[in-house]
Amino acid sequence: RRQSKNMDEGQTFALKTSHEQFIQAFESTPITSVGCIGAGKVGVCTMAVMAKHMPNINFTVYDDDPYIVCSCQSGPLPFYEPDLDELVESVRGKNLHFTKDFDKTVSSQFIFVCINTPLKTSGLGSEQAADLSGWENAARRIALASKGECKIVVESSTIPIQTGETMSKVLETIAPFSFEVLNIPSFYRGGSALQSFESPERVLLGCNDTPSGKVASAAAKRLLAPWVPPERVVLSCVWSAELAKLAQNAMIAQRIASVNSVSALCEKTGADLDEVMKVISTDTRIGAGYLEACPGIGGSHLLQTVRMLVYLCRHFRLHAVADYWNQVLVMDEYQRERFSTNIVRTMGGSIKDKRIAVLGFAYKPNTSEVLQSPAIGLCRSLLLEGARLAIYDPQVSDDKIREELPGASMAQLQLCQSAGDAVAGASAIVLVTAWDELAGMDMEAAYAGMARPAYLFDSRGVYDPAKLSAVGFKVYRIGKPRARA
After folding, report:
1. What is the dihedral angle through the alpha carbons of 13, 14, 16, 21, rounded to the nearest 10 degrees?
2. What is the pLDDT of residue 10?
3. 122 bridge partner residues
4. Phi, psi angle pair for 418, to nearest 5°
5. 179 beta partners
6. Helix crossing, 133-146 with 163-174: angle to 10°?
7. Angle 194-197-201 from CA coordinates, rounded to 5°
8. What is the mean pLDDT of the chain?
9. CB of 77 within 8 A of CB of 98?
10. Nearest Cα to 413, choosing from 438, 450, 430, 388?
11. Structure confidence by residue, pLDDT tens digits, 283-307
C-alpha cells in the first residue's frame, strides 16, 4: 500500500512537472515563430495575413508538393484568390517563407495544420466518413520532429468532431505533456478570403479546460491580438469548435438547397423566385444571405461537411437526424440533374453535334477552385448527349478542365481564351459561374454570332430574361416562369 502511494505521488509530481514545463514555455514567452503545414488556400491566406500584421514574427509554410512550394516561393501562386498574390509578394522573403523542410517548419512555437480532409474512398463509411489518416500522420511527424520541445498545435481546416482528440492521442503517445491542441477553424470564403481573414466576424477558439490548455488559449489570443479585437474571439471546448464549423457549413448548404427547392416550384407555378426571396429576405429572423438559386452546391467544404455529418449521426445511431441532413444531398443532386435535363428538353430533346458555350467552370467567381463545381457534372452530361462544348473560364486552367472531363475528344471539347470565342457559332450559352466579366458581356453581339434559334440558360440569375428575349434569345433562368408563346 505504501509502495502504491509512493507511485501515485510520483506520477502526480511528474504530471505537475510536465504541465509546468509547458506553462513556462508559453505563459509569458513572446511568440516569435509560427509554422504551417499545408500551402493550400487556407494555409497561405492565413499565414500571409498574419505576416502582414505581425512583421516581428517569422512564418514558415511547409508543403510536400515541390510544385506548390516552388510556385509559392517565386510566384504566381498555384491558385487564384483576389489580391492574394500581391499580399504574399509584399511579405515573402521578409517574414513569410515557404519550404519543403518539415523539421524547419515544426521548429516553430505554434504549428497550424491546414490540410485537406478527404472522405474515405473504400471500407467502412466510404464516401461519407472523413479520412483522418492525414491528420494522424501529421501529428506523428510533428511529435517526432519536435524533439521534446513544447508546441501548440492548431487545427485550422474543416474537420469532423473528435479530430483534436485523435491528434492529441498520437502526440501524447510519442511525446507526453509536450503539446496542446487548439481548434481555430478557418471560415474561409473562396473569392473573398482576404476580406474574411482581415476583418473576421468572429474567430472561434477551441481549447481544453486544463491549466496548460488555458495557457495555450491565452497565447493564441496574444497571437491574434494585432488585428482581431478580443471581443470577436469566441471561446469553447475543442469538440464544440469542431462541431460548430461542421454545423455552420451544413446549415449554409441546407439554406442553398431550400432555395433551389423553391426555384423548382416557381418554374412550375409561374411564381418568380426573385420576388419570393425578396419578401423572405425582409424577415429579420431569416436575413438576406444565400437566397439565390444555383445549379448545385460547389466548393470543397459544404457538401463534404454534410456527408460527414450524416455519417457522424448514423455512427451515434441518430438515424432520424442523419436522414434529415441527407435530404440536403438528395436535393442538391436533384437540382444538378434538373438543370442539365432542362437544357436538353428546351433544345428539342437532342443536342447531338450542337455547339454549346459553357461560360464559367469554377464553382464561384473570383476563385480557381473547381471541386464540386456544378460545371463538371453538367459538362459530363452534355458530352454524353453528344454536344460539342466550348468552355471559357477566366481563371481555371485548361489542364484542370481536361482533368475533370476525361475521355472528351478534341472534336467534342474546345477550351477558349475568351467568352466571345466560346459563343461564336454556338446554339446555346450556358452561364455556370457569375464572373463580372460574363455579366457584362455584349449580349446583342453574342446573339449576332450564334446559330438560330439561340438559347440562353442562366443558372445564376445574372441576365434580365425580358431584355434578352427582346434581343432574340430563347431564355431559361432558374426560378423564373417560362415565357408564354
Report:
1. 140
2. 44
3. none
4. -155, 160
5. 151
6. 30
7. 125
8. 92
9. no
10. 388
11. 999 999 999 999 999 998 899 999 9
What's the 3-state SS for the chain?
Answer: CHHHHHHHHHHHHHHHHHHHHHHHHHCCCCCCEEEEECCCHHHHHHHHHHHHHCCCCEEEEECCCHHHHHHHHHCCCCCCCCCHHHHHHHHECCCEEEECCHHHHHCCCEEEECCCCCECCCCCCCCCCECCHHHHHHHHHHHHHHCCCCEEEEECCCCCCCHHHHHHHHHHHHCCCCEEEEECCCCCCCCCHHHHHHCCCCEEEECCCCHHHHHHHHHHHHHHCCCCCHHHEEEECHHHHHHHHHHHHHHHHHHHHHHHHHHHHHHHHCCCHHHHHHHHHCCCCCCCCCCCCCCCCCCCCHHHHHHHHHHHHHHCCCHHHHHHHHHHHHHHHHHHHHHHHHHHHHCCCCCCCCEEEEECCCCCCCCCCCCCCHHHHHHHHHHHCCCEEEEECCCCCHHHHHHHCCCCCCCCEEECCCHHHHHCCCCEEEECCCCHHHHCCCHHHHHHCCCCCCEEEECCCCCCHHHHHHHCCEEEECCCCCCCC
Q: Which residues fall within 8 angstroms of residue 356, CB to CB, at 6 or more apart?
A: 343, 382, 387, 388, 389, 390, 426, 427, 428, 429, 430
Q: Report residue 333: phi and psi, to 5°.
A: -65, -40
Q: Amino acid letter at 63?
A: D
Q: What is the pLDDT of residue 108?
A: 97
The cell for 291 is 437566397
Distance between CA atoms of 87 and 226, rounded to whole angstroms? 17
Q: Are 194 and 82 in contact (CB under 8 A)?
A: yes
- Residue-level pLDDT at 1: 52
Termini Cα distance of the chain: 95
* 322/316 Cα distance (integer angstroms): 10
d(CA 133, CA 17) in angstroms, rounded, equals: 32
Give the contacts of 54 (CB within 8 A, at least 6 positions apart).
Answer: 95, 223, 226
Q: Which whole number is the average pLDDT over 71-84?
A: 94
Number of neighbours of residue 471 by Cβ within 10 angstroms: 14
Q: Are 105 and 62 in contact (CB under 8 A)?
A: yes
pLDDT tens by residue, 147-199 = 989 999 999 876 667 788 889 999 999 988 889 999 998 877 888 888 888 98
| Predicted model pTM | 0.89
Q: Which of 173, 176, 183 is nearest to 216 (CA)?
A: 183
pLDDT tens-digit readout, 15-40? 455 678 899 999 888 999 999 999 99
